[in-house]
Structures are given as structure tokens and as C-alpha cells.
């Protein structure tokens, strides 16, 4: 896999909790990052969480990703790196 692109993302759920995570993609595609963030939020039961173009921003690129993240990108088109406020 060539370079990966990291989008720093914040979402607010229905009770006001902020979740901070990175969306990692194989392409520098802001629309895909936003769609992937929403898909992941829905998959963890947070389909009503608010994430917008202003809260999902390109951060940086890396030459490669760890193996687990590469597997996620290959299987679902994106990977999530959880940071603050995300479920375990």
C-alpha cells in the first residue's frame, strides 16, 4: 500500500459527548473521509452523532500504516484510529 492520508475528526453524540478519532484513507479524499466517519459512527451505535466538513479535516499523510490498519483499509476502505471519548 502506498501513502495513507489522515483526517483529524471530532463528532458530538446525542448527549453531548465529544469523540475524537482519525479517519485513515488510501487517498486524500475529504468527502470519503466524512462518509467513512459517518459509517463508523453508525457501526458503533452513534448514528445520530454530528460530524461535519468543519470537524473532519485533512491532517497529514504517512508513507505506510501499521498492518492492522492496512487490513482495515483493504477490507472496508478506511481505518479508524480512536483517541479521546471513543468506545473501546
Write a concise keyword list for the protein shown above:
2 helices, alpha+beta, NE1680-like fold, 32% strand, 4 strands, 27% helix, 88 residues
Quick description:
The protein has helices at residues 30-43, 67-76, and strands at 4-12, 18-25, 56-62, 79-82.
Give a written overview of the molecule.
- There is one protein chain.
- The chain is an alpha+beta fold and 88 residues long.
- It has a single domain (4-82), classed as NE1680-like (NE1680-like fold, Roll).
- 27% of the residues lie in helices and 32% in strands.
- It has helices spanning 30-43, 67-76; strands spanning 4-12, 18-25, 56-62, 79-82.
- A 4-stranded antiparallel sheet has the order 3-1-2-4.
- Strand 1 (4-12) and strand 2 form a beta hairpin.
- The longest helix has 14 residues, at 30-43.
- The N and C termini lie far apart (27 Å).
- The mean pLDDT is 95.
Topology readout:
Layout: E1 4-12, E2 18-25, H1 30-43, E3 56-62, H2 67-76, E4 79-82
Antiparallel strand pairs: 1-2, 1-3, 2-4
What structural category arises from helix and sheet content? alpha+beta
Rg estimate, integer Å: 12 Å
Order of helices and strands: EEHEHE
In which range does the helix fraction lie?
25-40%
* Quaternary class: single chain
Could you tell me how far the N terminus lies from the C terminus, measured between alpha carbons in angstroms?
A: 27 Å
Strand content: 25-35%
> Architecture in CATH?
Roll
Averaged pLDDT? 95
Shape: globular
Examine the coordinates and then state which fold CATH places here, giving the name of the CATH topology: NE1680-like fold
- Find the count of extended strands (DSSP E, 2+ residues): 4
Q: How many H/I helical runs?
A: 2
Number of domains: 1
CATH superfamily: NE1680-like
- CATH first level: which class? Alpha Beta
Q: What about the largest sheet?
A: 4 strands, antiparallel
With strands numbered from the N-terminus, the spatial order across the biggest sheet is 3-1-2-4
Q: Indicate the low-confidence ranges by residue numbers.
A: none
Amino acid at each position: 500500500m502506498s501513502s495513507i492520508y489522515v483526517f483529524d475528526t471530532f463528532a458530538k453524540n446525542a448527549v453531548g459527548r465529544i469523540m475524537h478519532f482519525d479517519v485513515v484513507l488510501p487517498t486524500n479524499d475529504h468527502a470519503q473521509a466524512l462518509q467513512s466517519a459517518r459509517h463508523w459512527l453508525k457501526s458503533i451505535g452513534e448514528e445520530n452523532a454530528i460530524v461535519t466538513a468543519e470537524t473532519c479535516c485533512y491532517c497529514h499523510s504517512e508513507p505506510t500504516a501499521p498492518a492492522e490498519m492496512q487490513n482495515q483499509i483493504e477490507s472496508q476502505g478506511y481505518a479508524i484510529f480512536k483517541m479521546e471519548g471513543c468506545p473501546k
